[in-house]
């Protein structure tokens, strides 16, 4: 029988860590929500947010529980658990490359924020966030989760702040949401796909590929499968609320976000200069915590955290990411990489469903012994 130990303090920390990991540059800047949901208008966008959250909730429930039960010595082993040795290895390496690509996208987001608000070069923001994230990743999994677990709720509060301003505008102009919902669909913003429903589903698959190893790592830090699953679902619930409110804010402030690399910062600046003054560094913290998490997850493929090998590889990956993160504009990087990532998750979902619900004995997995720290 499964251990059912649940610590509410631990649940809140793990849920907060999920939010901190999830609200990276794509989400916090508003580009991700804009390209996947807001461009479809309010009704379709919010319905898409619900579908996205239900699918993401299933992925989180499954992988948080698996991580706690299996306690993988290497989080990437879950691919072999679901897909077998050969396909699992292919997915492992694809995931590593994908995660590192998203790491680069997030560093580009940091540069875009610095440039848009402070007027400083893109490279400055990119380099600063990369170095701070490296320092945090070197502290190890447990310390990273403790740090970003506190940052997560702060992110949610500041995202909600600009959304509350949008709701205030709607009270005064109740027809604005309907009018701008029609206009945003022809405003020329890049979109993840031409179909709103497929965009929502694709975003959920992106979430699976983006977050799978982090889900497994977070689950392993819990004391019971129940504690792990509650933590993950609480985090998904908080993200759902933030997504819905952000869709409303972007549609209400359509004229404000046109031509902006960082829609949320443009809205904050429009609502109140003081809010923007606080929001800009908060966005940087959002990206920093996600970048640190991704760097740790990618490096864990090659070495155990807090070892000399881990530190050297993490430093090398940081140096490469610092320079490649300035090659393409941020919105172009999001539009290229994120949809591709979503498509790659479709087959993985099929493997998960097959083993969880059809044949639990498929692809027998023998957990290797714990890696030795060097």
Automatic annotation (TrEMBL):
Keyword Membrane in annotation: yes
Protein keywords: Membrane, Transmembrane, Transmembrane helix
Superkingdom, taxonomy of origin: Bacteria
Transmembrane parts of this sequence: 46-66, 91-114, 120-141, 148-171, 196-218, 230-254, 274-298, 310-330, 336-354
PANTHER family (UniProt xref): CONSERVED MEMBRANE PROTEIN, MEMBRANE PROTEIN
Name of the protein in question: Uncharacterized membrane protein YkvI
Organism: Dendrosporobacter quercicolus
């Amino acid at each position: 029988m499964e251990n059912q130990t649940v610590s509410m303090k631990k649940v809140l920390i793990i849920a907060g860590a999920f939010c901190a990991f999830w609200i990276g540059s794509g989400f916090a800047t508003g580009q991700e929500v804009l390209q996947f949901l807001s461009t479809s208008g309010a009704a379709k966008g919010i319905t898409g947010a619900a579908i996205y959250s239900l699918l993401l909730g299933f992925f989180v429930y499954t992988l948080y529980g698996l991580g706690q039960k299996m306690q993988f010595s290497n989080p990437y082993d879950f691919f072999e658990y679901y897909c077998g040795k050969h396909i699992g290895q292919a997915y492992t390496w694809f995931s590593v490359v994908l995660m590192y690509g998203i790491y680069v996208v997030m560093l580009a987001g940091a540069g875009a924020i610095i440039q848009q608000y402070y007027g400083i070069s893109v490279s400055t923001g990119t380099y600063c966030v990369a170095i701070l994230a490296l320092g945090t990743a070197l502290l190890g999994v447990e310390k990273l989760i403790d740090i970003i677990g506190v940052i997560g709720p702060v992110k949610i509060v500041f995202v909600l702040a600009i959304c509350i301003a949008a709701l205030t505008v709607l009270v005064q102009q109740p027809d604005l949401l309907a009018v701008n919902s029609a206009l945003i669909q022809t405003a020329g913003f890049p979109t993840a796909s031409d179909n709103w429903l497929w965009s929502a589903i694709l975003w959920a698959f992106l979430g699976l590929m983006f977050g799978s190893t982090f889900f497994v790592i977070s689950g392993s830090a819990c004391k019971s499968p129940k504690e792990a699953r509650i933590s993950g679902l609480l985090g998904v619930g908080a993200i759902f609320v933030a997504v819905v409110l952000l869709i409303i804010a972007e549609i209400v402030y359509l004229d404000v976000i046109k031509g902006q690399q960082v829609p949320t910062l443009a809205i904050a600046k429009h609502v109140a200069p003081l809010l923007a003054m606080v929001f800009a560094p908060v966005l940087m913290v959002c990206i920093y915590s996600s970048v640190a998490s991704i760097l740790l997850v990618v490096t864990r493929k090659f070495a155990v955290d807090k070892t000399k090998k881990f530190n050297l590889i993490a430093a090398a990956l940081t140096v490469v990411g610092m320079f490649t993160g300035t090659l393409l504009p941020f919105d172009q990087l999001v539009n290229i990489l994120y949809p591709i990532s979503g498509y790659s998750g479709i087959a993985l979902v099929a493997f998960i469903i097959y083993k969880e619900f059809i044949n639990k004995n498929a692809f027998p997995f023998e957990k290797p012994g714990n890696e030795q720290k060097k």
